[in-house]
Amino acid sequence: MTFKSYLESGGENCPKCGSTAIKASAPPEKIKGGKVRVAMFCATCGARWQDTYTLSMAEDL
Ligand SMILES: [Zn+2]
């Protein structure tokens, strides 16, 4: 897999090995511009990378 296919699949699988055993390795961190950064980790191959999310919706709970 590549980061391109990782993004196209919605971030469901490790961008290196394709495993679904991926999780955030730290709490999400809010950054400027309505973005949130999340450090990610793959339990299968040990890959580490960073996801960046952009605010797209807000609603009452
Ligand atoms: Zn992996």
Walkthrough of the structure:
By secondary structure, the protein is mainly β. The protein has one helix at 3-8; strands spanning 22-24, 29-31, 35-42, 48-54. The radius of gyration is 13 Å and the shape is globular. The chain starts with a helix and ends in a 7-residue tail after the last strand. Bound molecules: zinc ion. The site of zinc ion has 8 residues, from loops.
Quick summary of this structure?
The protein has 1 helix and 4 strands, in the order αββββ. With 61 residues, it is mainly β. It is globular, with a radius of gyration of 13 Å.
Largest pleated sheet: 4 strands, antiparallel
Bound molecules: zinc ion
| Discrete helix count | 1
Unreliable stretches (pLDDT < 50, length at least 5) are none
Globally, the shape reads globular
Mean pLDDT: 95
- Compute the number of structural domains: 1
Helix/strand order, N-terminal first: HEEEE
Instruction: Name the structural class.
Output: mainly beta
- Report the radius of gyration as a whole number of Å: 13 Å
Distance between the termini: 36 Å
The share of residues in helices is: under 10%
Strand content: 25-35%
Topology:
Blueprint: H1 3-8, E1 22-24, E2 29-31, E3 35-42, E4 48-54
Antiparallel strand pairs: 1-3, 2-3, 3-4
Zinc ion binds next to loops.
Protein traits:
binds zinc ion; four-stranded antiparallel sheet; 61 residues
